[in-house]
Design a protein that fits this description.
By secondary structure, the protein is an alpha+beta fold. Helix content is about 15%, strand content about 25%. It has a single domain, classed as 2-Layer Sandwich (Alpha-Beta Plaits), CATH 3.30.70.20. It has two helices and four strands.
Length: about 70
């Protein structure tokens, strides 16, 4: 069985509150210029903690390589 690798994806509607940045155990998500959160694909393991805490519900966990 092949293990599917996941990654967080942040929607354009991000409110840049920083909740995801604060909860990420790997430091894989950062709010840039107070505008939007960005995911570091090298660090993100797709655990989903950021998506669960996002007050705007704009973070989803996808398979790597999905558009």
């Amino acid at each position: 069985m092949v293990k599917v690798r996941k990654i967080a994806a942040v929607g354009r509607e991000c409110v840049a509150c920083g909740s995801c940045e604060n909860i990420c155990p790997r430091g894989a998500i950062r709010v840039w210029n107070g505008l939007i959160a960005r995911v570091d694909g090298e660090k993100c393991v797709g655990c989903g903690m950021c998506g669960k805490i996002c007050p705007a519900a704009v973070i989803e966990i996808r398979e790597r390589g999905e558009g």
